[in-house]
Amino acid sequence: MKTLVTYAAGKKLAMFVTHGASEGQEDLPPWLENCRQAATGADIIAFFNCRGEVDQNIIDFLLKNDDPKMREFGRKGPESKGQPDEARLRRARTWVKDVLAKVPQVGTD
Fold first, then answer.
1. 8 Å CB contact between 74 and 55
2. Which of 3, 12, 39, 50 is an S-S bond match for 88, by CB 3.0 to 4.6 Å?
3. Other Cβ atoms closer than 10 A to 26
């Protein structure tokens, strides 16, 4: 299986990441940095992240995990219900417009 590193190397990349964590969660910055590292070799021209809704199957999986930290994430999962909310969706739309303004349009001639 090819990875993001394989596809992204040498290319401009705009990364859009959703996650179930609240924006203030202390684990979030290292997770987001791991996302950036997954695109090593790419020119990351923009990076966006926001909270999204965690699927119930993932919550159930986390709750059954042997790792107490994973179980805690599972217990917090229902807090993500209804995410992204309207404010996050507005931020995402603005981000997309900004990214599109940064890159030349392909196939518009």
1. no
2. 50
3. 7
